[in-house]
Fold this sequence. Notes:
Shape: globular
Structural class: alpha/beta
Helix content: 40-55%
Distance between the termini: 37 Å
Mean pLDDT: 78
Radius of gyration: 20 Å
Largest sheet: 7 strands, parallel
Strand order of the largest sheet: 3-2-1-4-5-6-7
Number of helices: 12
Amino acid sequence: MDSTVEKLPPNVLLFPFPAHSHIHFLLNLAELLCHGGLHVTFLVDDQTHRHLLNDTAIRSRFDRYSGFRFQNLRDGLPVPDSPGSLDKTMEFGYSFLEVAKPRFKDVLISSSDWQKAEDSDHVAGKSSIACIIADSMMASFAVDAADEVGIPIMCYHNACPSDLWAVLCVPKLIEAGEIPFQGDDLDVPIANVPGLEGLLRRRDLSSFLRARDLSDKNTQFIINGASQARRARMILNTFEELEGPALDQIRSQEESIEAFEESKSAVSTSTNGGDTEAARQGNLF
C-alpha cells in the first residue's frame, strides 16, 4: 500500500436525510470531526449539494479543513415544489431513499477511487471510508450496506432522546390504549413511557405519533427507522444534563449510544473561538 495513503487520517462518511434540521446537525458534527483531525466526506442528494455549494457560505466555512469534501449521490430527482413543507420534504425523502438504496453500497465499495466532481472540492489521496455516520431515517438500507461491505456504522437520531424513547415505546403505548388518541385533549398525561411519567403530555409527542391512524406512511417510516437504527451504535442530539432520564432509559436497552451537543457554542468552542459562518450567523448552513 502507498505510504502516503497509510498516513492519511481516517475518513468518516456522513449521510444525512435530505431535510433542513438533519443536514444542520451533521454539518456541525462534520466541523467537530474535522477539527479533531479526521477526514470527512459529506454525502448528500443532488438538490442539497447544489444548494450548499451555490446558495450558502459553506465553502468558506470548511475551507480551513483540507480533509473535508462534499460528495453527491447522483439521484436525478426533480427539485420539489415547496421544499420547506413537511409533506414535500417527506415525499422527496421517500423518492431519494428509493434511488439511494442500490447506489449507497456502490459508493462505499468505490470510495477508494472517487473521481473529482466538477462542482466539488477534491482532496488528492483521499483515504477510503473507515466509518459511516448515517441518519437513522436511512438505517433501513444503510446498516445492511455497511455490514455487507464491512465498514463500521453509527446512526444518529436527529430529534431529542425523549422523542426517540417515546417512539421506541410505541408498542407499550398502543397496548395501553394511549395511542392513537381518543378525544382532542392534548394535555392528557402520557403514562407508559418509562422514566418520563408525569413529564410527557400528548402534545409533547412527535407529530407523527399524534396521527389518528398509526398505519400512516410517515408514522410507520419514523417507527421503523428508529427500530432499524438500534442495530448500530447511536448518536443522540442532546447532552446529559438536559435529558438524563430519557438517556438512562434508552441505555437500559441500548448500551451503545453517545450524546452529542450540537449547539453553536459546542462548535465555536472546538474551533478556537467560533470563527465560523455558522457560529456568527446561526444559520442552517
